Predict the structure.
Amino acid sequence: MRNLTQTIEALIFSSGRSIDKREITKSLDIKKAELDRALAELKEKYDGKSGVLLLDFNDKLQFSSNPTYGDTIADILVKIRERELSKVLLEVLAIVAYKQPVTRLEIEDLRGFNSEYALQMLQKVNLIEVIGRKDAIGRPSLYGTTDQFLIKFNLRTLDALPSYDDVLARLKVLDDGAETSLFREVDVDEIAKVSASEEDEVPDFLKGETFTEISSDDE
């Protein structure tokens, strides 16, 4: 097979998990000796100094980042995850604040993504709550903001919120990685400190002090 080594390299990479050597030989209709020769080339390419390593264990193969660079990678990825989580929490909180009473499915229709975890986190810190049931099939929960939400953002009433279009525009900026705040006095990098392995922890942002009043001068 032409470019066998590169084909095997792409296959291991694309699998995103460990892949059995027998799967490779069977799928590519090659002999074990051919696989071994290709792996010898790949192991030379992905040696101990490479940022990516080829793991060979229990007759399985998998690519992995080099532990030598683990701390640097972790620092960068944590910041990315924090920014993504910041956007999710703010987006869901904004939808609840402006569209309440609103169901989870209605929130997900607006966002296009699953919002269950964000809703759980926001309920956990008492920024939103179930305020009723919708008169529809299954009687889904209706979410609304709490008094704690008003206190947290130093609002007297929900009427003091800025325009919904302005909030959405600010949220979209987060997609570009800019450190832009939904609420003008809130640094989005402090909104969440939750990683995928720490889902039960409360983001530092939600445990913080009361924030400066949300600006509505763009209305």
Observations:
- Residues 70-99 form the longest helix (30 residues).
